[in-house]
# Entry
Amino acid sequence: MKTIDICRLCIAGLLLYFALNGKPEGIKLPLQQPYTGSLTKLHQEAAKMEAIDRQGLSEALSEASKMLASDQLGLVKKTDELQSFCLGAISYGYTTFAVKKYPDVAALIKAEIIKTVGTKSQTVTDDLRDKTVELLAEFSRAIK
# Structure
């Protein structure tokens, strides 16, 4: 499977999610416990985002985590495909989040993905897939 196919799957998944759930309007965020996870810098940068953008990005990354965890066909086989999948989750428009609008948040996410996945194209192991699923879920918690 080519990288572009992974991107298309990601787009389709995100479009389907928002088509079924509709565009969030007037989201009121519940009171939350202080963030105590490992991505404190990302959490601090995300706090500068508009609430609807934070919510939308958090939900998209949470769904990406679930999609990757349930990849029973093994569509994501190489690490470059895994990177494209992860970066695709932040690269496509939903709510009003955009990489250009929040470059610091996007850069922090990209750096963590590279740290976890690496830069060489290799076969994705079950351990790496699990770590990436957890990373995407942690992104969601840090941004929320």
Q: What stands out?
A: DSSP finds six helices and no strands in the chain.
